[in-house]
Amino acid sequence: MARAFPGAYGLLDDAAVIGPVPGNELVVKTDTIVASVDFPPETAPDLVARKALRVNLSDLAAKGALPRAYLLDLVLPASVDERWIAEFASGLRHDQAEYGIHLIGGDLSSTPGPVTIAVCALGEAPIGSIVRRGGARPDDIIFVTGSIGDAALGLDALRGALTGLDDDSRRFLLDRYRLPQPRVALGPGLIGVATAAIDVSDGLIADLRHLCEVSRVDAIVEARSVPLSPAARQVIAANPERLATALTGGDDYEVLLTAPPDAAERLGALARSAATPITPIGRITRSLQQDASRVLVLDPGGRAIPLSAEGWTHFGQRNRQAGPPG
Amino acid sequence: MARAFPGAYGLLDDAAVIGPVPGNELVVKTDTIVASVDFPPETAPDLVARKALRVNLSDLAAKGALPRAYLLDLVLPASVDERWIAEFASGLRHDQAEYGIHLIGGDLSSTPGPVTIAVCALGEAPIGSIVRRGGARPDDIIFVTGSIGDAALGLDALRGALTGLDDDSRRFLLDRYRLPQPRVALGPGLIGVATAAIDVSDGLIADLRHLCEVSRVDAIVEARSVPLSPAARQVIAANPERLATALTGGDDYEVLLTAPPDAAERLGALARSAATPITPIGRITRSLQQDASRVLVLDPGGRAIPLSAEGWTHFGQRNRQAGPPG
Fold first, then answer.
1. Which residues contact B63 (CB under 8 A, 6 or more apart)?
2. Residues 268 to 297 of B: which have CB under 8 A from any A CB?
3. Given an 8 Å threshold on Cβ–Cβ distance, is B120 in contact with A62?
4. What pTM does this model have?
């Protein structure tokens, strides 16, 4: 799998070498997924492999980096058989081809515990240029790619918690949960346009708060502007309280970004070239408190939506509170 | 912990950036350790942290790379408390200072399984210069750093399988098992001198065979030349069959290297400057078979030592056979 990357030495050595092209630097990110915590144990192995890779590619994309290579630590219980490993490898190969990335190193370990997969992804970007969390400024517009909430609603559907959903919509939401679509094609286009960015993995509002905390600003989001898929709209029409799930659920793997108002045209061009919607959902405001960032979500009448603690529950994570409901 | 490394952004962002100095490239290596597989679950947390780091630094050293930074994926069961984490962090800080390396990213996950720690270490070396596994040539001398077998005998001592050992020797062997001493100071000096190198983690003979396989050569090792610590000598004097444990046991984290006969003087200077013994233990020979490498271990009478299958058993690994016993 590593033949095309000279510095991987065909995975026959103890380490790999990688250097950025002149003027670039490497951008590195690691993330681990654990069976029964981050994915259901019965998930098809090729989807597990692709999710393990893609959650990392999503972070690189949000920083504006072009992915190049990855290392893989695969920790497997004795119950995993050769067929599982073959299907897992097939998933890796698929995504390596899809994203033009190369496996350059790794480790295989045994465990008495669950399947555990650590990926370290390496991308590159011009020196000093990556899009940070901390660059959002008052009056910047908040944008998000794609659609929000599908994965969280897909998880609910998987758990049998959603009824009255047509088959196509159900399948769409499940797919969005099972296989993230990291915005790799769009990422490098954020450099020089976005003032700050983060990938949406903990949930739209939680990740917006993370961005605001590092940027030391507040934010206002208009709930009706948050882009929803037709399937998510169908769910929310039947169960209005599911809007909170969409706004606060995790695993979207979209890019949340901020940019000054005059960047709208350039973002429109980027959205077209990457064939990915980029939707304005709110604006950055001056921080009202010294040591905390406040994210307000407004309903169409301009009232703050009180998002309950349950709204912040994320599969495998502690609850988070995104600020007082106003 | 990451303040001194600008590209880590204080661990407040989603990715870190790192670039080699001009003329260098990055050398990357990842390795995972799992409680009850790679270390006893009751091991002190600071030692667990240091072992997780050091097994990776050992690989970088064997390739001639200078370590610079690492990423850490920490996967913890609910039973791990804050004190454990504080001691673990203390171990990381200790080794960061000792080796001049920086934590630049990571991930914290929960698991229903055992403590699992994946480290991705990044070092650097001049472009195209790292010491590979595949460069050993017939007539090269085989060298090894430090002493061999201590860790495997230390594991035996920990398991209560060694008797008649004085307290100091027992403590020495246990320490050698518990805390690898990667040859970081020596590593960069191997470039331009060693034709091939590998770190000894699976066991001296198994790793020599790995090196020979990629180099497509055979090897002859003189057992009496293999450097043993006084403690290991004491064990083997009382139990001669423990010589096989020393030669084939794992976790030495010494560097096994090959170099032409005329490099002996430069290696002597390197040994002095790094304050690390480098001992010749055998020689590389032409491969006798097309598709297999043969490692012979000779006793003082020139007879091949028949190393039994048990000799190849490694904690958490399958047995390996290093070739027919002659």
1. A13, A14, A15, B27, B29, B123, B125, B130, B131, B132, B187, B197
2. none
3. no
4. 0.91
